[in-house]
């Protein structure tokens, strides 16, 4: 009898505690549509570090190409095709042959975002179609200078088993056909994702004799391998502030900003749907003649019917000092008539691997007659 009463009492107490937990986890409304949550409810565990390798087939030739040019700028003074955009549904295979095992698809688009180099802005998802990662995606947004031997682009997120993922991808051309543009690119990238059992992972790495053996033995699906994050040599994060001036130039014979999409039907008076590709100089001072620090390469589009609010996707490609060759990636909203606009830094490459932060943009000068603008950027970044 006592045991029965005790069991009922325990059950009642546990029920009350569970109810209170759910109330605090799900019921703390901040703004009606926002509620504070306990991250434990998502089942998130400690991160693990994985390495993926596959071959990406960018095919323009044949009756069923996987890469399709969708934008050809009507006016372009650049000889290398500045502003051209292609949509892709490219196979990802285990080996360099197209006939080898299909692991997934690279789906998205890329555009030529430089007037002087074959430097693309890449926005794509690696959709995995094999093994335990089947249905999960890894998302890339970065700069790809295709004639460099190895190009690095940030992994900015993912879905499924790659929720909250971050990392970077290394791309190197395996084969290129200049007559039709077809290419085979080897893609290798480490990425953090969520591990079901990190203790098991570390014990296995230790048991198998460190990284070298774990790398050759701990294959999950052939193209995925567990790795020890210490191999990257990542140290403590530091916080840096960068300041430069962004020159968005539509005028003259060699503009750095080019309108590549003019919607054929547009009921908005402010140009809703217009898209521009940019290769804008970043300088030390507000004068275009001041020291060149880098380029802002990417695109922006007018994404509001009522405000001058842009969606901005661009890479700050640094060209000076110890950060030369590194990039910071921006994806955010820019309401250009606000005094100060804030956009997130979502990743980076080189010395900005795993970067996060935000950028403040404020207009220094604007010419309404031709659209030219000088914008001061202050960028605050956490990086290793």
From TrEMBL:
It is found in: Secreted, Extracellular space, Apoplast. The keyword Secreted applies. InterPro entries: Allene_oxi_cyc_Dirigent, Dirigent. GO terms for biological process: phenylpropanoid biosynthetic process. Keywords: Apoplast, Secreted, Signal. Pfam families: Dirigent. Residues 1-25 form the signal peptide. GO terms for cellular component: apoplast. The keyword Protein biosynthesis does not apply. Homodimer. Dirigent proteins impart stereoselectivity on the phenoxy radical-coupling reaction, yielding optically active lignans from two molecules of coniferyl alcohol in the biosynthesis of lignans, flavonolignans, and alkaloids and thus plays a central role in plant secondary metabolism. Belongs to the plant dirigent protein family. This is Dirigent protein. The lineage of its organism: Eukaryota, Viridiplantae, Streptophyta, Embryophyta, Tracheophyta.
